[in-house]
Amino acid sequence: MEKRRLSFWQIWNMSFGFLGIQFGMALTGGFMSRIFQTLGAEIDDIPILWIAAPLTGLLVQPIIGYMSDRTWSPKLGRRRPYFLIGAILSSIALCLVPHSPVLWIAAGFLWILDASINISMEPFRALVADKLPDSQRSYGFVVQTLIIGIGTWVASSLPWIVSQLGVSDSADAGVIPMSVKVAFVIGAAVFLISILYTVFTTSEYPPEDMEAFEKEKQKKNQFFSDIIKNIGNMPITMKKLGLIQFFSWFAFFTMWSLANPALTEHVFNTPAPIESAFDMTNAAEAQAYDLANTSFQKSSNQVGKYMGIYGLSSMVFALLLVLYTSRRRINRKYVHMISLILGGIGFISMYFIPSPEYLVLSFTLIGFSWGSILSMPYAMLSSSVDPKKMGVIMGIFNMFIVIPQIIAAIGGINFIAGLFGDETINAMVVAGSSLIIAGLCNFLITNKKAITYQTEH
To answer: Membrane spanning segments where (predicted)?
Structure first.
């Protein structure tokens, strides 16, 4: 089927729901470790508490991709039913997460939240490939990245913004501050509204052969065999991209799980106080704990604000690519390589910066890599696979995102960072090294159609 070229605003509308998805991801990525620490988690235990996120992605995304390939609703189409279900569940979970009374409940809510986000997220990747001709694929994924950048920037700054408006950062021991609770409620509202916007402003192409589609849908018990078959027949370009994704997402999982403890400790000199180290029956020590905890919470707001810069710089990166790819072709391979190496330098620089203001530069460089990670691999992949299997292929490709995160969560970060020393900031050095390796792995990509596609006008 010949797909018509879409205008910028049509691509914007179909991608706008990712604003909400990114609000959910940025709030969890920027503040979940802070919630864990507030509830008493030790720093070495934080990565394993995050394991819910990649595990749910490993299970949910291939299933949702497979199901959405085999779904057709005359009113909602193929992908939009999953956007809507995921948005409703995610919004509820976002409201509940910061009210967790104990650590295991917070970890459980993270599991539910990430599963819900994944229900919405995977079909969005497939929708770009469904709707756009090859000549607009890079453009479409870059527009999506632009929206993701906006979401990352605003959502990462929300607790700080809310705090500036007068909402308290102080709270009793083991209680999440009100500024975080309000930020998560705002995130929930944005998630639902932005998904609804895409659902109501975007249509989808029906299956080319409805009779054959219905016959295929009636076949039973094919899920696991189809998944295994598609994994076995994985294109060589997809395998090479998978290696790049492995090192890229190991780096970003390290940031999401450990940037807050690393930076509050190493850059702001306000580590999370350990309640057991204070005699809370003594008024002076209880006051000292409250002061230390408030300092930690305020520094955590600052870390979130600085982390938002990587969303802002990824947005600028995406905007430049939007303007360029709307008229010209790009070499996706070298764009991705250079971006990842710059991000690696940004992570490593955190070890050496003399004061917090320099985090602006660190996260700006990281944003270049983030913008590329969210667009270039998907553009390269979508030009190399069967469009009829786009949903399940995108779901399988997600394995290369979640497996490195699982390895990092079950001890990979702690082991490798421990080789550099005991300080938590060493985890950021590990993240930077991993991102540089990912960049160099781009030399493996040789498929010309994946590397570049001429945009025609």
So the answer is: 12-36, 48-68, 80-97, 103-121, 141-162, 182-200, 241-259, 306-325, 334-353, 359-380, 392-419, 425-445
Interatomic CA distance for residues 30 and 45, integer angstroms: 17
User: How many CB atoms within 10 Å of residue 72?
Assistant: 17
For residues 349 and 428, what is the distance between their CA atoms, to the nearest angstrom?
9
> pLDDT at residue 136 above 80?
no
Tokens of 47: 């990565």
List of residues 6+ apart from 125 with CB closer than 8 A = 378, 394
Angle at 249 between CA 246 and CA 252, to 5 degrees: 155
Pick the CATH number of 8-203+227-451 from 3.40.630.30, 1.10.3720.10, 1.10.443.10, 1.20.1250.20: 1.20.1250.20
Q: How far is CA 323 from CA 28, 127, 264, 416, 422, in A?
A: 31, 22, 37, 40, 45
Query: For residues 293 and 271, what is the distance between their CA atoms, to the nearest angstrom?
Result: 9
pLDDT > 60? residue 342: yes
Tell me the β-bridge partners of 274: none
Higher pLDDT, 393 or 167: 167
Bridge partners of residue 77, in order along the sequence = 73
Which residues, at least 6 apart from 329, have a Cβ–Cβ distance to it below 8 Å?
A: 452, 453, 454, 455
d(CA 362, CA 166): 29
> pTM, whole model, 2 decimals?
0.77
pLDDT digits (tens, 9 = 90+) for 28-68: 888 898 899 889 888 888 888 888 778 877 777 777 777 77
Domain boundaries, the chain: 8-203+227-451
Find the mean pLDDT for residues 406-435: 92
* Of 118, 120, 146, 141, residue with least CA distance to 130: 141
Q: In this structure, are residues 168 and 297 in contact, taking their beta carbons and an 8 Å threshold?
A: no
